[in-house]
Amino acid sequence: MHNNDAAKAIRRDAESFSIRSILENQSSRFENHLNYMNPQMPKVLKTLGFDKTYIRAEGAYLWDQDENRYLDFLSGYGVFNLGRYHPVIVQAMRDMLDYKDASLVQFDCPHLLGELAKALVEKVPHLERVYFTSTGAETVETAIKFAKAHTKRDRILFFDHGFHGLTNGALSVNGNKEFREGFGKLLPDCNQIPFNDLNALEKELKKKDVAAFIFEPIQGKGVFIPSPGFLKAAEELCHKYGALTIADEVQSGMGRTGKFLACEHENVHPDIVLLSKSLSGGIVPTGAVLSRTEIFKSVFSRMDRCVVHSSSFGKNSFSAAMGLATLWVIDHENILERAAQAGESLMTKLNALKKKFELLGEIRGRGCMIGIEFQSPKSLQLKMGWSLLHTLSKDLFPQLITVPLMRDHRILTQTSGHHQDIVKILPPLIIEEEDIQYFVSSFEKVLEGAHKFPGGIWDLGKSLAKTALGDSKS
Ligand SMILES: Cc1ncc(COP(=O)(O)O)c(C=O)c1O
């Protein structure tokens, strides 16, 4: 074959590849996961009735193959603050592909990264520099290294129930033993302190070997908010004893709580701030570690240490382009105000249900990060159902809310953490009042079912428990 013919043949071959046609036939969706990936996932989805074949997504909605529409109050665990396929984000992606930007040259200073760093520092003016990563956990790994390099100390303190990702270092500062168990010895010198306990924090800090205290300004697991003034006092203590503060805003940042950073609610100015998830509008993996110049100087201290900390995809222009587009949307579409208002509307409506439903406990959160806690009921019948279910499993009750929300109302929500009777909602920040009302009226119907014992959701509880027990035995 001549060279020309060969080139034509290759082009013809390439034309026969079509992602669209692969997307359009999803009959092997669950089977492939069962056979080639984590096999537990399709099993769990099937048990809970979350095994849908989604074929499209836009804004706050997903559609399945039968054109049923689902309301997404999960937002990809907080990745889609702006909903899916926001037109500005999509256009930025199209422009990047058309422009053929020379991304990832590596030995280079990519233009878009610098622009995004400047824009982020304008949003968080007490910090001066940005290191980019690909994931939330990688921002945590980076922060741990930077804190150690700067303070020349090794110890990291973290909160009970804190969640900072699941890589080795991030797992070492995870306050949930269910995640840590089974993975051998993690990093030494990481110590858990009880939530909201200033005395315990000071006791550790006094030893003057603590590099940093890492915290979420609002805990993702359970949506727990440190008591007013705690973070400010903790910041002062850390600085008094020479330790840094690391605010993990991977989930709470980028406007989720109605302010750009959740830390702003408490008027604290952490030495290191971590962003990820929705920084890139959800389309490209990304993360950012914001900090002070002197901390950067401790890491990148000489020319021969220029790449002493780096990763292949960290400096990728695509995520920076998406980041710039995301910040533009936040500013031009009043996203912070909208998140605050949507959150307030949700909290008011949910709180109003409390007088009608004895199972409903505290509803807490900020902006569009809300935890709905359930409590042991007082009436005899219901109490019996509650005790029975909790004897079978301490993780089951919130599933009895999320499952019917999905099954009967096509709304995606999540349970929040191990051994907690909490349902968490993370709607996209662009959510409209009409969807809020739909969520609350659906939630009310599910609660009506939950207040009838026996029957209703309690039967579902028994069958879920049976499946779970059968699986743990096998
Ligand atoms: C507060 C917080 N930090 C870190 C992470 C880890 O991010 P990633 O899953 O991108 O590694 C998460 C993920 O949910 C998170 O919520």
Give your account of this protein's structure.
The protein has 474 residues and is of the alpha/beta class. It folds into two domains: 53-83 and 335-473, Alpha-Beta Complex (Aspartate Aminotransferase, domain 1), CATH 3.90.1150; 87-332, 3-Layer(aba) Sandwich (Aspartate Aminotransferase, domain 2). Helices cover 45% and strands 14% of the residues. It has 19 helices and 15 strands. It has a seven-stranded mixed β-sheet, sandwiched between helices. α12 links the parallel β7 (210-215) and β8. The protein is globular, with a radius of gyration of 24 Å. Pyridoxal-5'-phosphate binds at residues 77, 135-137, 140, 163-165, 216, 220, 248, 250-251, 276.
Largest sheet: 7 strands, mixed
Q: Mean of the pLDDT scores?
A: 95
What are the segments in which pLDDT stays under 50 over at least 5 consecutive residues? Answer: none
CATH class of the largest domain: Alpha Beta
The coarse overall form would be globular
Give the oligomeric state: single chain
What's the architecture of the largest domain in CATH terms?
3-Layer(aba) Sandwich
What percent strand? Answer: 5-15%
Fraction of helical residues? 40-55%
Structural class: alpha/beta
Tell me the distance between the termini.
Answer: 59 Å
User: What ions, cofactors and ligands are bound?
Assistant: pyridoxal-5'-phosphate
Q: Tell me the number of structural domains.
A: 2
Radius of gyration: 24 Å
Strand order of the largest sheet: 4-10-9-8-7-5-6
Q: What is the CATH topology assignment of the largest domain?
A: Aspartate Aminotransferase, domain 2
